[in-house]
Amino acid sequence: MSIRVNFQLVIVSVVCFGVCSVCGDDIEVDLANYHPANKNTYRMYTNVSEDLMKIKIKNINDDVGFFILQIHSYIENLTLSYNSTFGPSSFVTGTNIGLIYGDSKSSAKFYLFRNIKYYSNASVLIVVSIYDALDPVPGGCNLSFANMVAPYQIVSYTDDYIAIDSQPPSAYGISCDNNTIQVEMYHLFLNENDNNINTYFEGIDKMLTVDNIRSYGRKVPSNSENFFYHRLFSSYRGTGEVFAIVSTYNNRSSAYVPAVSYGCDLVNWDISCIGPVTGFWKFVCALLLIFGLITCFYGHVFFKVTLFTMGLSFGVLITYFAITMDGHFAVEEKMVTSLIIGFFYGIIWIFIWWKFGVPVLSVHLNFILTGFLLASVIFYAGLADVYIYHSNLNFWVTFLCIMLACIIISAAVTMYGHIFGCSLLGSYAFFTALNYYLGGNLQYIIINTYRRATVKYFNNAVISPPFQVTDIVHSIAWIVIVVLGFYVQVRDQRGKPPFPPNRNGIILANTESERTPLIQPEGAAAPNYVY
After folding, report:
1. Which residues pair with 161 in a beta bridge?
2. Are residues 357 and 499 in the same domain?
3. Residue 304, class by beta-carbon neighbours within 10 Å (0-12 exposed, 13-18 middle, 19+ buried)?
4. Which residues are listed as membrane-spanning (predicted)?
5. 187 with 225, same domain?
6. Residue 511: inside a domain, yes or no?
């Protein structure tokens, strides 16, 4: 995929966002018409081809207290420096970077260096954010970053979460030891599975100014001060996310340099950001599609198959959670091990039905898994981001209470509870597999619960999932299929016993005892079955 911004976009940016020029190896930015009180954000799109380029800022007005020069690139890490020697504490490297300038001079110089060239030209968005001297200074109370003032964010990610590190702001007359500046964090999701460069830059553009951040962004719930400048976000792989921070003091606000992460490696998009990509995962998803639909519409009819499926699912879930604690297995190794052990769980559960033939006992795995899924849905929908549920004790007590309530209600109406569980679990398995092929994030309902149980510090992570067109369509379709599956199974069950007969019970019911008549009377009724 080309990473060049199209010609029309470049022309529009030059006309709408300011006057700029690229002279040889230099980029010139004219701030004559930019003031803190009104037009305070300069934007410019350009292509960078040289290894080292000079950025000249000229005609800085006298009412400018300080400004932040931002550089945003699509894939390449760039280095922005105050000087060409890249001395200590004078530069920053990344894809979303920025440096602050607060001298009273009317001009300034910066240097832009390309570290590793992925393409001949690097598409770059240059932004200059202008502020008054009394506005809060983003990253002004820096404690650990390399620069004295660090208005940028540092982004890192794992398979489970995205980590955002920043530094506290400062303001005129405020001590960093007694900082009372209000800080708010926002995030904006880009389109799911969309790595288009225009989408990338449009997302950044929406999160550059304070007003736009509050208009387009989703506010992150407040957290304890210990974790505010080190925030964790649940990773939704392949969905771009823009992070922005606003600092406010005495009704004056300023914005940090926005940062973007997709939770994966953009260079290896197909391998790192989209799945499934291996034959094994395609096979697993195919099984989920098939058995999900069968369970949704015929789970109660094929009772023994459903018992095996529930035993298998329960075994896979418990085993996967358990061996994840070890941390020495790859994802596919954990999945294969879980499937093998889950297979034996399924056989054991079939044996329990064959031996005892008690429906309420046999369908309890269905009730447990249904409660687990419903509790996961509730926390995924927003409850997990409520501050009191950052406590693992509060989270798991509430989670288990929701599960217990589902089990009790389902046990009170055993047949209907089992049919509902089959419809809910089967349809969810179907859409989970479908999401891997068509996009969507419903699979993260269970994945986030798994992360909460196994990933250290995930209790402090922001869940706040994307809920875009694909997710809305899939959610509505999921509800429709659950209702339809429940209706079909209840209709097919009319006039039939609530549960099929147990073979062992039939044999015992037909076994002769000392009270069995030696000669059966004429017109004897058929033997009674034990259900």
Report:
1. 234
2. yes
3. middle
4. 280-298, 305-323, 335-354, 366-389, 395-416, 428-447, 467-488
5. yes
6. no
Least confident of 262-276, 332-346, 438-452: 262-276
Is pLDDT above 50 for 396? Answer: yes
CA distances from 112 to 29, 68, 328 (A): 14, 15, 42
| Structural domain count, the chain | 3
Contact 286, 433 (CB under 8 A): yes
pLDDT of residue 44: 94
Query: Strands 108-114, 252-255: parallel, antiparallel or unpaired by DSSP?
Result: unpaired
State the Cα–Cα distance between residues 190 and 374, nearest whole angstrom: 28
Per-residue pLDDT tens for 259-305?
999 999 998 888 888 866 677 778 888 889 999 999 999 999 999 99
Give 22's contacts (C-beta < 8 A, 6+ positions apart).
28, 46
Instruction: Please check whether residues 431 and 444 belong to one and the same domain.
Output: yes
Q: Any alpha helices (H) in 329-391, and if so which ranges?
A: 331-356, 359-362, 364-380
Residue 525 within a domain: no
Residues 249 and 279 in one domain: no
Sort 65 into a burial class: Cβ within 10 Å, 0-12 / 13-18 / 19+.
middle
Residue 155 near residue 138, CB atoms below 8 Å: no
Do 197 and 257 lie in one domain? The reply is: yes
| Other CB atoms within 10 Å distance of the CB of residue 78 | 22
User: What domain range includes position 314?
Assistant: 275-504
